[in-house]
């Protein structure tokens, strides 16, 4: 029974006027994800009455389909199903076939008629199939808390019978919300922040600032690996690698130690904004979480974002570090983020960074730098890695 899969979407179904827009993107993303997992197999994806039906020409491993669909945001749940003609004895046979192989002792039957033309109503179907299952398997009916549920969905030209329902990742289809630029550092937080942006339908482009040759190539490899892992949720990614050492040297030479991190970050933001505008990206995403480290106090965040007019999204603002780590484990970025690396900002890190930056002071210090020239030169040295 591993040929046909029924998929339900979640929030997409609530969109009234725009529903077809979201459905179209979701369908494209499902196709791409399945194509990636099954480059050889033939399959079709069809929309029917707020559902999608995937049909493979041949049987496929459920686990592999599961892995492919679990990364498609917008899906609420999905099930391997038996698709049979709209006849009660065929439905009954399919239900028995599925239930006989299952160890659970209590069950319920839940029929749903999307197409009301079928001669029996849902309750009549439940009663008839339920009685047959009791008779043939000895299982007991429990309508309040069944161990297993036999679902029957009556479509226009087939009945779908199934017992397994796997949870989808929820959210909105990637690309339905537009495009954003994620500041990806190599640590735990920014990768998780990217995951949340993807989950809400934002297609992500990545930017990473490195201090090569002061930091090693390994740190860059690590960021490329993270972008690859995140690419599971979209289908191609661009990662911009920005050589940042020269700008940092200028800052170190010309400004008091305690302001360094804020100044680095102001340059990162300027460069990020310029790239975002060039690439048509509508917001900047960071892994900041309020108060987590010195640069993430309200005063410092304000001093940093003062250089840009772009919306800055901080999906982790309300999360504790241990919650962030738990999500990193779930989405598969933990091991890579945990590897040692040299951060562009720990390099030249001051011993006592300013925690409550005063903007006039920062502006005064920054005047000693040729901001435009540094930004322009750095923009020209950026390299792009396509994933
Ligand atoms: P992370 O775990 O993502 O590195 P963090 O807890 O180390 O975050 P900071 O070092 O203060 O916090 O960085 C805050 C945010 O700034 C990061 O989440 C990331 O979005 C961005 N950022 C920091 N350093 C870099 C970098 N070298 N390249 C790109 N973005 C960076
Ligand atoms: Mg960091």
Description:
- The chain is of the alpha/beta class.
- It has 2 domains: 4-167, VC0802-like (2-Layer Sandwich); 179-386, HUPs (Rossmann fold, 3-Layer(aba) Sandwich).
- 40% of the residues lie in helices and 21% in strands.
- It has 13 helices and 15 strands.
- Strands 1, 2, 3, 4, 5, 6, 7, 8 and 9 form a 9-stranded mixed β-sheet that branches.
- Helix 4 links the parallel strand 5 and strand 6.
- Helix 1 packs across helix 2 (62-69) and helix 8 crosses helix 13 (371-381).
- It is elongated.
- The mean pLDDT is 92.
- It binds adenosine-5'-triphosphate and magnesium ion (MG).
The appropriate CATH architecture of the largest domain is 3-Layer(aba) Sandwich
CATH class of the largest domain: Alpha Beta
Strand element count: 15
Please give the share of residues in helix.
Answer: 40-55%
Briefly, what is this?
The protein has 387 residues and is α/β, with parallel strands linked by helices. 40% of the residues lie in helices and 21% in strands. The strands form 2 sheets. Strands 1, 2, 3, 4, 5, 6, 7, 8 and 9 form a 9-stranded mixed β-sheet that branches. Strands 14-13-10-11-12-15 form a 6-stranded mixed β-sheet, sandwiched between helices.
